[in-house]
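User: quick one, fold this
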Amino acid sequence: SQKMEAIGRLSAGVAHDFNNCLLAIFGYSDLLYERYRDDPFLARNLTGLKEAGQRAAALTKQLLAFARRQPMETRVMNLNGVVSGLEKMLQRLLGEDIHLETGLHPELGKVKVDPGQIEQVIVNLAVNARHAMPAGGRLTLRTAPLEVTADRPARHDVPPGHFVLLTVTDSGTGMDAATQARVFEPFFSTKGEGTGLGLSTAYGIVRQSGGYIFVNSAPGQGACFAIYLPVTQESESLRTGPVAIVSDRGSETILLVEDEEEVRAVLHQILVSRGYRVLQAGSGEEALVISRLHRGAVHLLLTDVTMPEMKGPELAQRLLSERPQTRVVFMSGYNDERLSDSGLGAPLCLQKPFSPKTLGETVRSVLDEAAEQLRATG
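Assistant:
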């Protein structure tokens, strides 16, 4: 609805600004920790500061999930594997007074989802169900294949197509119509505690996955959440192991472009502390001027995506037309769809807030890959 879209845009904007602040907090606290890690008092307090920042980052992540701006690492998979893999954890989460049942259809189509985020959806729905059953009860998770056609419409407002249907049903206190109308809004809660982001996060993840989520309930009759995920014809994804990074240091030249001064300052410190030569700019226009005045190589462009006037993708295109050997890494406070339409292929994007370790390893990995390709073609 228009209301949910408006709330989503507001949530994304707030989360974007928070992520810039958190990036500065993480960066400065890590720089201080690297210098004073041998001082027990300072190390303990800096660790506490970072942990508080991580809790704040988790909240912004939930806001971005609702706004459908959360970065997703999708895989083609069978949804039954996600549900069965969660059973033991869900039983511990629900406690002894709530009986967990599953009914998994053996012939499901494959879905393209981020498994970690779909797990989050199921866990959030289970937590919601637990609160609705303070005296105990039953939680049932079922999967089924479903074809929706004009002649065979779904129970809910879902377009024609092939889906995997996941239902999460509890025997709890239920909801009236007014509660159902607002249940997916961020910060809406009937419990008077918590953040009220659990169901809104689930809503955003499902919608960003191309799916639909609905609730049917009545006071005293429990609740049933129905999730429709579109079937994909792509082949099932294979798991790949992580790439080991030996070092995060270097001596190459990096052009850093970030319009937020405090973020730019901490990123500059992190990169310089790892040995890099850093050219700084507060805008795309300034970056192009600096690049043209700089006589040496610019090995890497590290730029924010969302800036006033010239955006990151446009800057990258213009810089690469003048310096085709330069590598590009973007930074963004949310999953910016403009990157997929930038004409730059599948560019690498660091999602704010990231740690100095993540920044250092990413930069080193990109530069090492560029050097290896240069040797191979040289």
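User: anything notable?
Assistant: The chain has a mean pLDDT of 83.
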